[in-house]
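Researcher: Next sequence.
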Amino acid sequence: MAKFSKVKVKNNEVILADGSIVDMHPRHNFDKPTRLLLQHMAAGVCSNPDCLNHTIGSNLKRNDYAGNGIAAHICAAAPGPGAARYNKDQTKEERSSYKNGIWLCGSCSIIIDRDEPRYPVDLLNEWKAKAEKRAMSMVGTKSLTQFELADSVRAEVVRALTCNFSNMVNPFKFPVQSVHHAYKDAIEKLDPRFSVQVEISDSGVFHTITPKPGQNPKVTLVLRNEAMRDKMSERWSDLVKKGHPLEVSLNDIGFEGSPLFDAIATERGLDGRLVIKKNHPDIQTIMYLTAENGSEFEIGTSLSTVVSGSDELTIRGSFLDGIFSFVYCSFKCRKAVKLDLSFDLLLWQDREIRNLPHYRKALKAARFIRLQTDVQICIDLIFGSNSVRIGEEHTAEYQEFLGVFHWLVGMIEKGKAIADKLNKPLVIRSLIVDEDDELRINNLYPLVSGPLSQTVAADEEIWNAFYENYEPTPLDAYSGQPIQADVQIKEVQARPFNLFGNVVQSPCFETRIKGFMPVVDHSTVDDDGSVTLKIVSIEGTEMTSSLLDGSWSILE
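Model: Next structure:
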């Protein structure tokens, strides 16, 4: 390699590397037409054959162009320190001419000037000539980024494999498992210190990388974006102190210390994600309802996830496919624990009401809540052969949680009885029940299986009606007096009601009352003659309610 002495400047004169002396002069820069010509002749692509990066494109607002391309001088535009390949024999016109220029990206333009011996004039002229030929050959051809090309290659591979499978006598005999194992083994060979599990789904390929037993490999994570330093520091702190997984885009990071992770870093631009998390085995958990008298009802058993750090421990679990769930937290710094319980019956939404998963278990739990006192939810955490029981205090909020669950399951139970009478299956569209519809459901539910007879305690208001322009009747004479007779109250037209998002039409119902006291409330009489008529029970009043003949239907 040739040796180059330092360029020196003295008294506005420059002593060049070969010892010759030239006068200092301003830079002989390219004019705009020359810069555009250099850019266009290379198709806006860096002329370094080992780079070939696109250097020009739209800015973010798409109202102007932006890029990192530079019309670089092959021989320096002026003498002086750092002036690479300066040619004292060139004229001003030659230095600023197209012949003395090459189109490069910003990085490559710096590299060729800082390492002059490695990038002589002849090499740069060779780059330029190849770049121009390449640009000429690309005219009229389709432009593909490396990621588009990778997608095209994948599509072609899939097409070729599909064709091969289709031409096989029995494509099920293709050794898919062998291909999967070969792929996994090839990845593990990149760094034998790690084991790799590969899962493939419609949403992508997932690689789980864990150190092999006895190994303690060190991999350095390098940020490509310094602006993320504070955010990454916060996420790393959460990983160490709380055990929360750290997730970051592969576009923002690189790695040092492992060929396996170096290969992962090449996935930039493909929306790859790296998730770093501590490895904690799931633990078995059992959820119970317990009562003051010691009775217990087991809701279910499941495996719950554990996330722990130096400051916090969190255990999350769910039962009956998410109908019940809990989050248990232990805080070292506060020496405190917290248990959050919840239930969610969305599992039943959009399902036929007579075929709800885990309904019988939920119904038994609701009945346990109704029949027992001071009901509490407890969870057993199983650690090997030992167990720890955690539970919630009997707070008002906690009791409301149990009450809402009991009420909603009870409404489902009533809805199932009504659904058996309908002309087509009833699908739960909504779990919201308003007060008017709840009253209608509560009135109809006891009558679905047949008439209901009961003895009513004295002095209870059984029925009332408000009349405008009230005309006196024989009952007026008996107002406030017991009558040992029958009275029949019948619906003229049944009001449709909403049953879990379905508008239901039921038959009319009637009530026969034996022994009653009429009360004509004249205190409500107005100038228009309106009045309220009430039916009040007496000692021994018997009341029988039933549904009239008619059909049940879901209205469209």
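Model: The chain has four domains: 8-138, 176-276, 283-416, 435-555. Confidence is low (pLDDT under 50) at residues 1-5.
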